[in-house]
Amino acid sequence: MPAQRPRGVSIQDVARAAGVSRQTVSNALNAPHKLRPDTLERVTALIEEMGYRPDQSARSLRSGTRRIIAYTTPETDPDNPNALMSGFLEAMVAAAGEAGYRILLVRPRPGQSKARALEDVIAARTADAILLSDVLEDDPCVDYLHETGFPFAVFGRTGPGRPQAWVDVDSAQAMIDMVGLLSSHGHRRVAYLGTSAALPWLRHREAGFRIGARRFGLAGHEAFVDGLDEVVAVARDLLNRSPRPTALVLDDDWLAPGAYAAAQAEGLTVGADLAVTGFNDMPYTRLLQPALTTVRLPLRRIADALVSRLLQSVEEGAPPEAGLLLAGDPVLRPSMTTLA
Amino acid sequence: MPAQRPRGVSIQDVARAAGVSRQTVSNALNAPHKLRPDTLERVTALIEEMGYRPDQSARSLRSGTRRIIAYTTPETDPDNPNALMSGFLEAMVAAAGEAGYRILLVRPRPGQSKARALEDVIAARTADAILLSDVLEDDPCVDYLHETGFPFAVFGRTGPGRPQAWVDVDSAQAMIDMVGLLSSHGHRRVAYLGTSAALPWLRHREAGFRIGARRFGLAGHEAFVDGLDEVVAVARDLLNRSPRPTALVLDDDWLAPGAYAAAQAEGLTVGADLAVTGFNDMPYTRLLQPALTTVRLPLRRIADALVSRLLQSVEEGAPPEAGLLLAGDPVLRPSMTTLA
């Protein structure tokens, strides 16, 4: 426990002990280049020794910096949280922390739009910058933030001609690489089981599958599901197409338990008769029998890039000019099969 | 998108439009009882119409209220986040949001203690209250926060004779209830597979198992593991004790995959020859084959109780005098077996 209680120490106390003005103490913290080196050293040593801390609420009136990034974290089920977004948040807390910033979680009030919640954050000067995730290509919040000139960045991506302050996984390339991995394991007939929701990252994965199948000269079927109750039936249907696929490429890990059940119902053994691959490397994929080959998102690299872009906007006032695509990491596990 | 841009509207603009002083506009927001009802109504309508929002950084200097709860979220692996604590955070964001508060995530800097990070939060007036989790019974942060008089609450519990600003699950009672559930399904011989780490919640579960076994007159063996690589061997050893148990009671869901593997190695079928029960209802327990009977923590009720206690401290200055234990929810799934 700290021996000194900081709230007893004022800027006046430090100034008196150092034999300088309050302004000099303030300069030591906020404009050190204005002081002579020996003065700076003496005052800084006393600030540390006496445990003085400036009141951030007064300080922020001057500098406008709170060292807080507001993040509109997506809503999830407390009894079954989205592990991907929980992992992303953890990576953001770590990356921001290393830069001396903290994450403030912003959730719109019931009936309030996300844009309105962001407006509140900006108007009340609650944060220095805003982080968005789960954006669609024409997300109005992106335009709103761009218009205000408030520093922001997006995990995800925005369409051409819009602000490009984003970092995302190159989902299409990751899917091309997955098809390449199947090709190099001897597969010639692959089937794609996708989710029909109109989410950009799902469409990038689908495009990647098509490009990959063409590039590696594989025969490919495709089918899409709307919800959990369709997965087994649609996967069984894919497994009965002619020519019969030797691999099921899923656009998201959540389809894997259903794909495994479909394989079992068709008398196929995943990892022996049939390869199954996923996307996202959700923690439960390691517990599936057999464990799932999938794509891991480089969450820490994504968070580092987002923090770097946010700080560039906050500290230099210059938003980044182009988005940044980072490669996914293929994770090879026993659901892969090698064909002769 | 909001049509009005709030940063263009100052308190002076509202005062001029309403034909009142700036102080009157300020009173409408901060001390409405000082105004005549018709003045209050006119000024409030203009504030809303013109989209004026007070600068929170100036406001907080007066009222001291930022409507922020700082939470020292535990560190986790971004590629495999702790679903229980992710779910708890989600429940806190929702519960705090309904009360008009936001959650600020505080992580000590590398080399910095948690207490020192909290000291920074208090000194810089970054938040109105602090939430702790994962505390041990003699956690020094609890004493530190109690001494400062800063509003705080704990998810977990503190020992007797210490500040009691906590909310926790009644783990012992939940385990007694689980043993009772096994008893009512015909089990007479149960074995407890526990984790040896000296964490208070694990010791409460262990105590609950012993009380339950005694209360329901069951024969009980116990064994403990230090790490993942021991689980299968120790579980197999328990299954070979005499008399052979018909149920394995786990002190945490993380032991379940190992317990299932041990059963398989012993030629037993979970859900038929052997019952297995867990604790925490981690999302993956629903994907195990068979799905695991376990105990769900009432995360939303816990979060509501914590927010209510935090706000009581912030708004009334009165910390709660006693901790609050909430019941866990047993979740019956196919890993339970019924004996004749």
UniProtKB/TrEMBL annotation, chains A, B:
<dbReference type="InterPro" id="IPR000843">
    <property type="entry name" value="HTH_LacI"/>
</dbReference>
<feature type="domain" description="HTH lacI-type">
    <location>
        <begin position="9"/>
        <end position="63"/>
    </location>
</feature>
<keyword id="KW-0805">Transcription regulation</keyword>
<dbReference type="InterPro" id="IPR046335">
    <property type="entry name" value="LacI/GalR-like_sensor"/>
</dbReference>
<dbReference type="InterPro" id="IPR010982">
    <property type="entry name" value="Lambda_DNA-bd_dom_sf"/>
</dbReference>
<dbReference type="GO" id="GO:0000976">
    <property type="term" value="F:transcription cis-regulatory region binding"/>
</dbReference>
<protein>
    <submittedName>
        <fullName>LacI family DNA-binding transcriptional regulator</fullName>
    </submittedName>
</protein>
<dbReference type="GO" id="GO:0003700">
    <property type="term" value="F:DNA-binding transcription factor activity"/>
</dbReference>
<dbReference type="Pfam" id="PF13377">
    <property type="entry name" value="Peripla_BP_3"/>
</dbReference>
<keyword id="KW-0238">DNA-binding</keyword>
<dbReference type="InterPro" id="IPR001387">
    <property type="entry name" value="Cro/C1-type_HTH"/>
</dbReference>
<dbReference type="InterPro" id="IPR028082">
    <property type="entry name" value="Peripla_BP_I"/>
</dbReference>
<keyword id="KW-0804">Transcription</keyword>
<dbReference type="Pfam" id="PF00356">
    <property type="entry name" value="LacI"/>
</dbReference>
<feature type="domain" description="HTH cro/C1-type">
    <location>
        <begin position="7"/>
        <end position="53"/>
    </location>
</feature>
